Amino acid sequence: MPEIFNALPGQEVPVGGISKALACMWAGGDEPASGKPNAGESAKAMQVNFVLHLGYFTTAEDAALQFQTAVEFSRRYPCRVVVLCPMRKEEGGQEFRAKIYGECTPGKTKGDMRCCEFVMLSYPIASRRYLENQVSVCLSTDIPLYYWAHNFSSSVRLNDYQYLLNRSKRVLFDSALAPAGMADSVWPKPEMLRDLAYARLLPVRQAIGQFLSGFAPAAIVGGLASVTLRHGTAHSAEARGLASWVRARLNDCGALAELPVEVTAAAALPAHDIELSFCYTNGQHFSWRGDTAKGCALLKASIGGANSELSIAFNLLGPTAALAEAMFF
């Protein structure tokens, strides 16, 4: 039996009757799968199509967790969510299966109701060439499509889904879970690719950027010889993302394109720590060290003759906020 598909909530319906079942669910012919009250047409106006594609490395527990993340996201951004659940060969399934799920929650004002609807599709890998037709039927027309490829075993497998890669306004993946080099694969629209590990860093990027904005750009890069990022075991993907951002911002300040930026795992650092330091030849220094478990960070700098030190509270973005950051910004 399809383990991932069975782990997700919803009411199983015939694959050929998905549209009719959704219409019936909202019209009140059947109670919504979530057990929440039915809503009118204005309440369930969708803003985006969102495809969550659960890869081969996804477990049943992980699938349920990512489904809940999609539910929380849809409460803020009403959307049609299609969850794709590939069947492994050993599961023995030969046919597509479908579930539907609906949910309504109160909005920010009186009378504001936010509704979303989910379609779960389980499919055998041998029949993936038919998936495009099934997905296209499930999507709402005239609104943008966003595609989240979660926990794929290889970029080669992801390249099999060109319909989704080409049509989507954004393609999301998490480099903390993806195979090495996935971001460097040949993508049909590489400018649309977004890394959730990088999106989670938004509070870090904001804090470092605001702190360094107090120094002249020329002073920041004057005498700068190299940049070092050290990380604990929990944040290798975030450290790589931060290194990419730091290099780009320093280049904007006038640093040489070939400035060395080194990312290293440090056994001496706690698992949830990340440490950034600028190495100068003129006696200046800058460092940032954050502990994502404790939610605190320390910034120190001596640049252009000015000394500064600042302790701040911070956290990486949570899953729902990271999705929004990666999709829309």
List keywords for this structure.
single chain; about 325 residues; alpha/beta; Dihydrodipicolinate Reductase, domain 2; 2 domains; 8-stranded mixed β-sheet; 6-stranded mixed β-sheet; 11 helices; 14 strands; about 30% helix
Write a structural description.
The structure is a single chain. By secondary structure, the protein is α/β, with parallel strands linked by helices. It folds into two domains: 3-188, no CATH class; 202-317, Dihydrodipicolinate Reductase, domain 2 (2-Layer Sandwich). It has helices spanning 3-7, 18-27, 60-76, 131-138, 155-158, 162-167, 196-200, 202-212, 217-221, 236-252, 319-328; strands at residues 11-13, 48-54, 79-87, 97-106, 113-124, 145-150, 170-173, 193-195, 224-231, 261-265, 273-280, 285-291, 296-303, 306-313. An eight-stranded mixed beta sheet has the order 1-4-5-3-2-6-7-8, sandwiched between helices. The protein is elongated, with a radius of gyration of 23 Å. Residues 29-37 have low confidence and may be disordered.
Helix content: 25-40%
Taking Cα atoms only, what radius of gyration do you get, to the nearest Å? 23 Å
| Mean pLDDT reading | 91
As laid out across the biggest beta sheet, the strand order is 1-4-5-3-2-6-7-8
The amount of beta strand, in percent, is 25-35%
Main beta sheet: 8 strands, mixed
Task: Indicate the low-confidence ranges by residue numbers.
Answer: 29-37
